[in-house]
Amino acid sequence: xxxxLVTGASGHIxxxxxxxxxxxxxxxxxxxxxxxSAAAGVLGIPGDFADPASLQxxxxxFDTLFxxxxxxxxxxxxxRNAVQAAKAAGVRHIVRSSGAGAxxxxxxxxxxxxxSIDQLxxxxxxxxxxxxxxxxxxxxxxxxxxxxxGGTLYAPHGDGAQSLVDVRDIAECAAVVLADPAAHAGQxxxxxxxxxxxxxxQMALVSRAIGRPVAYVDVPEAAAVxxxxxxxxxxxxxxxxxxxNHVVKQGxxxxxxxDVAALTGHPPRRLExxxxxxxxxxxx
Length: 284
Ligand SMILES: NC(=O)c1ccc[n+]([C@@H]2O[C@H](COP(=O)([O-])OP(=O)(O)OC[C@H]3O[C@@H](n4cnc5c(N)ncnc54)[C@H](OP(=O)(O)O)[C@@H]3O)[C@@H](O)[C@H]2O)c1
Hints:
- The protein has helices at 12-24, 52-59, 75-89, 109-123, 139-142, 145-149, 167-179, 199-210, 221-230, 235-249, 259-264, 271-277, 279-282; strands at residues 4-6, 28-32, 44-46, 64-67, 93-97, 127-133, 152-155, 161-162, 188-191, 197-198, 215-218.
- The strands form three sheets. It has a seven-stranded parallel sheet with strand order 3-2-1-4-5-6-9, sandwiched between helices.
- The mean pLDDT is 97.
- The protein is built from 13 helices and eleven strands.
- It has a domain at 4-137 and 165-191: Rossmann fold (3-Layer(aba) Sandwich).
- The protein is an alpha/beta fold.
- Bound molecules: NADP nicotinamide-adenine-dinucleotide phosphate (NAP).
Protein backbone atom coordinates (compact mmCIF):
# COMPACT_ATOMS: atom_id res chain seq x y z
CA UNK A 1 0.00 0.00 0.00
CA UNK A 2 1.27 3.46 -0.83
CA UNK A 3 -1.39 6.04 -0.03
CA UNK A 4 0.15 9.45 -0.66
CA LEU A 5 -0.78 12.79 0.92
CA VAL A 6 0.50 15.87 -0.92
CA THR A 7 0.98 19.09 1.04
CA GLY A 8 1.69 22.40 -0.70
CA ALA A 9 -0.54 21.00 -3.44
CA SER A 10 -1.90 24.35 -4.61
CA GLY A 11 1.57 25.91 -4.99
CA HIS A 12 4.03 26.05 -7.88
CA ILE A 13 5.52 22.58 -7.44
CA UNK A 14 2.33 21.06 -6.02
CA UNK A 15 0.09 22.04 -8.94
CA UNK A 16 2.40 20.29 -11.41
CA UNK A 17 2.83 17.32 -9.09
CA UNK A 18 -0.93 16.83 -8.69
CA UNK A 19 -1.33 16.74 -12.48
CA UNK A 20 1.41 14.11 -12.78
CA UNK A 21 -0.01 11.96 -9.97
CA UNK A 22 -3.46 12.14 -11.57
CA UNK A 23 -2.01 11.08 -14.93
CA UNK A 24 -0.20 8.17 -13.28
CA UNK A 25 -3.35 7.04 -11.47
CA UNK A 26 -1.60 7.29 -8.10
CA UNK A 27 -3.55 6.69 -4.90
CA UNK A 28 -3.31 10.18 -3.40
CA UNK A 29 -5.10 13.07 -1.70
CA UNK A 30 -4.07 16.67 -1.08
CA UNK A 31 -3.99 18.62 2.15
CA UNK A 32 -5.43 22.07 1.96
CA UNK A 33 -5.31 24.88 4.53
CA UNK A 34 -7.79 27.06 2.61
CA UNK A 35 -11.27 25.79 1.73
CA UNK A 36 -11.52 25.37 -2.02
CA SER A 37 -7.78 25.28 -2.78
CA ALA A 38 -7.75 21.56 -3.63
CA ALA A 39 -7.56 20.81 -7.38
CA ALA A 40 -10.74 19.66 -9.09
CA GLY A 41 -11.30 15.92 -9.05
CA VAL A 42 -8.85 15.31 -6.18
CA LEU A 43 -9.74 14.39 -2.61
CA GLY A 44 -8.93 17.43 -0.44
CA ILE A 45 -8.29 17.00 3.27
CA PRO A 46 -8.29 20.04 5.56
CA GLY A 47 -5.07 20.66 7.46
CA ASP A 48 -3.00 23.60 8.60
CA PHE A 49 0.71 23.41 9.46
CA ALA A 50 -0.01 25.87 12.29
CA ASP A 51 -2.61 23.55 13.85
CA PRO A 52 -0.99 20.29 15.08
CA ALA A 53 -4.31 18.52 15.78
CA SER A 54 -5.50 19.19 12.23
CA LEU A 55 -2.25 17.72 10.88
CA GLN A 56 -2.54 14.51 12.82
CA UNK A 57 -6.10 14.07 11.52
CA UNK A 58 -5.02 14.90 7.98
CA UNK A 59 -1.99 12.57 7.95
CA UNK A 60 -3.81 9.55 9.44
CA UNK A 61 -4.23 6.67 7.02
CA PHE A 62 -1.46 7.82 4.65
CA ASP A 63 1.75 5.87 4.06
CA THR A 64 3.74 8.56 2.28
CA LEU A 65 3.79 12.29 2.94
CA PHE A 66 4.98 14.81 0.37
CA UNK A 67 6.02 17.59 2.73
CA UNK A 68 6.26 21.07 1.25
CA UNK A 69 6.28 23.94 3.72
CA UNK A 70 5.72 27.56 2.70
CA UNK A 71 8.56 30.05 3.19
CA UNK A 72 7.18 31.98 6.16
CA UNK A 73 8.88 33.42 9.27
CA UNK A 74 7.76 30.50 11.49
CA UNK A 75 8.66 27.81 8.96
CA UNK A 76 10.78 25.84 11.46
CA UNK A 77 7.89 25.72 13.94
CA UNK A 78 5.50 24.55 11.18
CA UNK A 79 8.03 21.87 10.26
CA ARG A 80 8.18 20.65 13.86
CA ASN A 81 4.38 20.40 13.91
CA ALA A 82 4.38 18.44 10.66
CA VAL A 83 7.10 15.98 11.63
CA GLN A 84 5.56 15.30 15.06
CA ALA A 85 2.14 14.76 13.47
CA ALA A 86 3.62 12.43 10.85
CA LYS A 87 5.15 10.33 13.61
CA ALA A 88 1.95 10.28 15.66
CA ALA A 89 -0.13 9.40 12.59
CA GLY A 90 2.14 6.50 11.60
CA VAL A 91 3.38 7.93 8.27
CA ARG A 92 5.99 5.53 6.89
CA HIS A 93 7.93 7.75 4.48
CA ILE A 94 8.40 11.52 4.12
CA VAL A 95 9.41 12.97 0.77
CA ARG A 96 10.43 16.50 1.66
CA SER A 97 10.75 19.36 -0.77
CA SER A 98 13.76 21.19 0.69
CA GLY A 99 16.27 23.51 -0.98
CA ALA A 100 19.67 23.30 -2.70
CA GLY A 101 22.55 23.50 -0.26
CA ALA A 102 20.41 22.51 2.75
CA UNK A 103 22.77 21.96 5.65
CA UNK A 104 22.02 22.45 9.35
CA UNK A 105 25.61 23.63 9.88
CA UNK A 106 25.75 26.05 6.93
CA UNK A 107 26.85 29.66 7.49
CA UNK A 108 24.16 30.61 4.91
CA UNK A 109 20.96 31.24 6.90
CA UNK A 110 18.50 29.90 4.29
CA UNK A 111 20.57 26.73 3.77
CA UNK A 112 20.75 26.36 7.56
CA UNK A 113 16.96 26.68 7.88
CA UNK A 114 16.33 24.09 5.17
CA UNK A 115 19.01 21.81 6.63
CA SER A 116 17.57 22.13 10.15
CA ILE A 117 14.18 21.00 8.83
CA ASP A 118 15.79 18.09 6.97
CA GLN A 119 17.47 17.22 10.28
CA LEU A 120 14.09 17.15 12.08
CA UNK A 121 12.89 14.65 9.48
CA UNK A 122 16.00 12.48 9.91
CA UNK A 123 15.67 12.57 13.71
CA UNK A 124 12.02 11.47 13.50
CA UNK A 125 13.23 8.03 12.48
CA UNK A 126 10.70 8.00 9.61
CA UNK A 127 12.12 6.83 6.26
CA UNK A 128 12.73 9.88 4.09
CA UNK A 129 13.91 11.31 0.80
CA UNK A 130 14.99 14.91 0.25
CA UNK A 131 14.46 16.85 -2.94
CA UNK A 132 16.69 19.94 -2.91
CA UNK A 133 15.79 22.23 -5.79
CA UNK A 134 17.80 25.23 -6.96
CA UNK A 135 16.05 28.52 -7.75
CA UNK A 136 13.00 28.04 -9.98
CA UNK A 137 12.91 29.29 -13.59
CA UNK A 138 9.27 30.16 -12.85
CA UNK A 139 10.43 32.95 -10.47
CA UNK A 140 11.12 34.96 -13.65
CA UNK A 141 7.36 34.89 -14.26
CA UNK A 142 5.95 34.69 -10.73
CA UNK A 143 8.18 37.26 -9.04
CA UNK A 144 10.13 39.24 -11.67
CA UNK A 145 7.56 39.83 -14.41
CA UNK A 146 6.80 43.42 -13.38
CA UNK A 147 10.47 44.44 -13.40
CA UNK A 148 11.12 42.67 -16.70
CA UNK A 149 8.07 44.34 -18.26
CA GLY A 150 9.48 47.65 -17.04
CA GLY A 151 12.73 46.92 -18.91
CA THR A 152 15.11 46.39 -15.97
CA LEU A 153 15.78 43.54 -13.57
CA TYR A 154 17.38 44.72 -10.31
CA ALA A 155 19.22 42.25 -8.06
CA PRO A 156 22.35 42.20 -5.87
CA HIS A 157 23.86 39.27 -7.76
CA GLY A 158 26.90 40.81 -9.48
CA ASP A 159 27.68 38.51 -12.37
CA GLY A 160 26.95 35.34 -10.38
CA ALA A 161 25.36 32.58 -12.45
CA GLN A 162 22.54 30.26 -11.35
CA SER A 163 21.53 26.83 -12.63
CA LEU A 164 17.78 27.57 -12.56
CA VAL A 165 15.50 24.55 -12.52
CA ASP A 166 12.06 24.23 -14.13
CA VAL A 167 9.35 23.47 -11.54
CA ARG A 168 8.01 20.81 -13.92
CA ASP A 169 11.27 18.90 -13.53
CA ILE A 170 11.03 19.14 -9.74
CA ALA A 171 7.47 17.81 -9.87
CA GLU A 172 8.51 14.98 -12.18
CA CYS A 173 11.29 13.97 -9.79
CA ALA A 174 8.81 14.08 -6.91
CA ALA A 175 6.35 11.89 -8.81
CA VAL A 176 9.09 9.33 -9.55
CA VAL A 177 10.13 9.17 -5.89
CA LEU A 178 6.53 9.03 -4.64
CA ALA A 179 5.79 6.09 -6.95
CA ASP A 180 8.37 3.95 -5.11
CA PRO A 181 9.58 5.76 -2.00
CA ALA A 182 11.41 2.74 -0.54
CA ALA A 183 13.73 2.72 -3.58
CA HIS A 184 14.82 6.25 -2.66
CA ALA A 185 14.98 5.95 1.13
CA GLY A 186 17.83 7.90 2.71
CA GLN A 187 18.61 9.75 -0.54
CA UNK A 188 18.97 13.51 -1.06
CA UNK A 189 18.66 14.76 -4.64
CA UNK A 190 19.90 18.17 -5.75
CA UNK A 191 17.66 19.40 -8.57
CA UNK A 192 19.21 21.96 -10.91
CA UNK A 193 19.01 22.91 -14.54
CA UNK A 194 21.67 21.70 -16.96
CA UNK A 195 23.20 25.15 -17.59
CA UNK A 196 24.03 28.18 -15.46
CA UNK A 197 23.33 31.76 -16.53
CA UNK A 198 24.13 35.11 -14.94
CA UNK A 199 21.28 37.61 -14.68
CA UNK A 200 22.73 39.56 -17.61
CA UNK A 201 22.71 36.38 -19.71
CA GLN A 202 19.14 35.54 -18.59
CA MET A 203 17.92 39.02 -19.56
CA ALA A 204 19.71 38.76 -22.92
CA LEU A 205 17.73 35.57 -23.61
CA VAL A 206 14.48 37.24 -22.51
CA SER A 207 15.26 40.33 -24.62
CA ARG A 208 15.85 38.23 -27.72
CA ALA A 209 12.62 36.27 -27.15
CA ILE A 210 10.38 39.31 -26.60
CA GLY A 211 12.16 41.57 -29.10
CA ARG A 212 12.73 44.36 -26.61
CA PRO A 213 15.78 45.24 -24.47
CA VAL A 214 15.72 44.21 -20.82
CA ALA A 215 18.71 45.32 -18.75
CA TYR A 216 20.10 43.80 -15.59
CA VAL A 217 21.27 46.23 -12.93
CA ASP A 218 23.44 44.94 -10.11
CA VAL A 219 22.30 46.78 -6.99
CA PRO A 220 24.10 47.18 -3.65
CA GLU A 221 22.93 44.79 -0.95
CA ALA A 222 21.68 47.65 1.24
CA ALA A 223 19.43 48.83 -1.60
CA ALA A 224 17.96 45.33 -1.97
CA VAL A 225 17.20 45.20 1.77
CA UNK A 226 15.60 48.65 1.64
CA UNK A 227 13.45 47.67 -1.35
CA UNK A 228 12.18 44.54 0.44
CA UNK A 229 11.49 46.52 3.62
CA UNK A 230 9.51 48.98 1.49
CA UNK A 231 7.43 46.10 0.15
CA UNK A 232 6.68 44.93 3.70
CA UNK A 233 8.66 41.67 3.45
CA UNK A 234 9.04 40.26 7.01
CA UNK A 235 12.54 40.62 8.49
CA UNK A 236 13.34 36.88 8.71
CA UNK A 237 12.52 36.47 5.00
CA UNK A 238 14.71 39.44 4.11
CA UNK A 239 17.56 37.75 5.99
CA UNK A 240 17.03 34.45 4.16
CA UNK A 241 16.74 36.11 0.75
CA UNK A 242 19.89 38.14 1.36
CA UNK A 243 21.78 35.00 2.38
CA UNK A 244 20.73 33.45 -0.93
CA ASN A 245 21.68 36.62 -2.82
CA HIS A 246 25.16 36.38 -1.28
CA VAL A 247 25.46 32.77 -2.43
CA VAL A 248 24.49 33.76 -5.98
CA LYS A 249 26.90 36.71 -6.04
CA GLN A 250 29.78 34.49 -4.95
CA GLY A 251 29.04 32.16 -7.87
CA UNK A 252 28.08 29.29 -5.54
CA UNK A 253 24.64 28.78 -7.15
CA UNK A 254 26.06 27.76 -10.52
CA UNK A 255 26.63 24.08 -9.73
CA UNK A 256 24.99 21.53 -12.01
CA UNK A 257 23.68 18.22 -10.72
CA UNK A 258 22.81 15.12 -12.72
CA ASP A 259 19.94 14.18 -10.39
CA VAL A 260 17.06 15.47 -12.57
CA ALA A 261 18.30 13.40 -15.51
CA ALA A 262 18.96 10.35 -13.32
CA LEU A 263 15.44 10.44 -11.83
CA THR A 264 13.41 11.45 -14.88
CA GLY A 265 15.43 9.83 -17.66
CA HIS A 266 15.67 13.09 -19.61
CA PRO A 267 17.94 16.14 -19.42
CA PRO A 268 16.65 19.08 -17.38
CA ARG A 269 14.35 21.48 -19.26
CA ARG A 270 16.31 24.35 -20.80
CA LEU A 271 15.98 28.01 -19.82
CA GLU A 272 15.76 29.09 -23.44
CA UNK A 273 12.73 26.84 -24.00
CA UNK A 274 11.10 28.07 -20.80
CA UNK A 275 11.57 31.67 -21.92
CA UNK A 276 10.13 30.94 -25.37
CA UNK A 277 7.03 29.44 -23.72
CA UNK A 278 6.49 32.43 -21.44
CA UNK A 279 7.03 35.51 -23.63
CA UNK A 280 3.44 36.64 -23.00
CA UNK A 281 4.25 37.12 -19.28
CA UNK A 282 6.90 39.76 -20.07
CA UNK A 283 5.33 41.63 -22.96
CA UNK A 284 4.27 45.03 -21.64
N1 LIG B 1 11.03 29.73 -5.46
C1 LIG B 1 12.23 29.17 -5.50
O1 LIG B 1 13.07 29.51 -6.35
C2 LIG B 1 12.59 28.07 -4.53
C3 LIG B 1 13.79 27.38 -4.71
C4 LIG B 1 14.10 26.33 -3.83
C5 LIG B 1 13.24 26.01 -2.78
N2 LIG B 1 12.10 26.71 -2.63
C6 LIG B 1 11.19 26.34 -1.54
O2 LIG B 1 10.01 25.81 -2.11
C7 LIG B 1 8.92 26.06 -1.22
C8 LIG B 1 7.82 26.75 -1.95
O3 LIG B 1 7.35 25.90 -2.98
P1 LIG B 1 6.23 26.40 -3.99
O4 LIG B 1 6.71 27.67 -4.64
O5 LIG B 1 5.86 25.24 -4.82
O6 LIG B 1 5.06 26.74 -2.97
P2 LIG B 1 4.09 28.00 -3.00
O7 LIG B 1 3.65 28.24 -4.40
O8 LIG B 1 4.73 29.09 -2.22
O9 LIG B 1 2.83 27.42 -2.21
C9 LIG B 1 2.84 27.22 -0.82
C10 LIG B 1 1.93 26.07 -0.49
O10 LIG B 1 1.91 25.92 0.93
C11 LIG B 1 0.57 25.76 1.37
N3 LIG B 1 0.41 26.39 2.67
C12 LIG B 1 0.64 27.70 2.98
N4 LIG B 1 0.39 27.90 4.28
C13 LIG B 1 -0.01 26.72 4.79
C14 LIG B 1 -0.41 26.27 6.08
N5 LIG B 1 -0.42 27.10 7.14
N6 LIG B 1 -0.75 24.98 6.24
C15 LIG B 1 -0.75 24.13 5.19
N7 LIG B 1 -0.38 24.48 3.96
C16 LIG B 1 -0.01 25.75 3.76
C17 LIG B 1 -0.30 26.43 0.33
O11 LIG B 1 -1.49 25.67 0.29
P3 LIG B 1 -2.95 26.18 0.68
O12 LIG B 1 -3.73 26.06 -0.57
O13 LIG B 1 -3.35 25.24 1.72
O14 LIG B 1 -2.79 27.61 1.16
C18 LIG B 1 0.50 26.25 -0.96
O15 LIG B 1 0.10 25.08 -1.62
C19 LIG B 1 9.45 26.91 -0.07
O16 LIG B 1 9.74 26.07 1.00
C20 LIG B 1 10.74 27.48 -0.65
O17 LIG B 1 11.69 27.74 0.36
C21 LIG B 1 11.73 27.72 -3.47
